[in-house]
Amino acid sequence: MRIFMKLALGVAALSLACGAAAQKPVIYPAKGQSAQQQKKDNSACYAWAKSDTGIDPAVVAQTPPPPSGPAVGGGERLKGAARGAVVGEIAGGHGGEGAAVGAVVGGARARRNQAAQQQQAQADKSQTLNTFYRALGACMEGRGYTVK
To answer: Could you give the CA distance from residue 8 to residue 22 in angstroms, rounded to a whole number?
Structure first.
């Protein structure tokens, strides 16, 4: 039951992270602005949004994701092996078998932790870009454009 709850929470977090992907706004010249004027306004609003929010979308987009290789470094396998050895010895003198099972469980925990870190990094990136795009949209609306 406990594993099911963790799995359900993980799926919910993933769906929220995917649903919250940053979307660049669509900008329409509602007052008949020329393409040249729109380019000028967009450039000015981009600079203002960057200054106002302190966010540079080019830098955010280039931010590398957390490593996605084998899950190592958190000590989950070692801790799992130690717990398994203790439980194995208590349950009937099978510390080695318990350690092996514990290491497998610890490895699964390490993979879950790594996946959660990757999801959080993606959600943070999306939230940062959304903040910038809201500022850009507000500026463009102030200049007479429709922003969606």
So the answer is: 24
For residue 115 the two structure tokens come to: 């996946």
Q: For residue 27, give the 3-state DSSP assignment.
A: strand
Q: Is it the case that residue 87 has pLDDT exceeding 70?
A: no
Q: pTM for the whole thing?
A: 0.61
Interatomic CA distance for residues 103 and 86, integer angstroms = 12
Burial class (CB in 10 A: 0-12, 13-18, 19+), 74: middle
Closest CA to 104 of 87, 84, 120: 84
Tell me how far apart the alpha carbons of residues 103 and 78 are, in angstroms, rounded to a whole number. Answer: 6
**Are 103 and 81 in contact, with CB atoms under 8 Å apart?**
yes
Q: Taking residues 34-40, what's their average pLDDT?
A: 97
**Of 136, 145, 144, 147, the residue nearest 52 (C-alpha):** 136
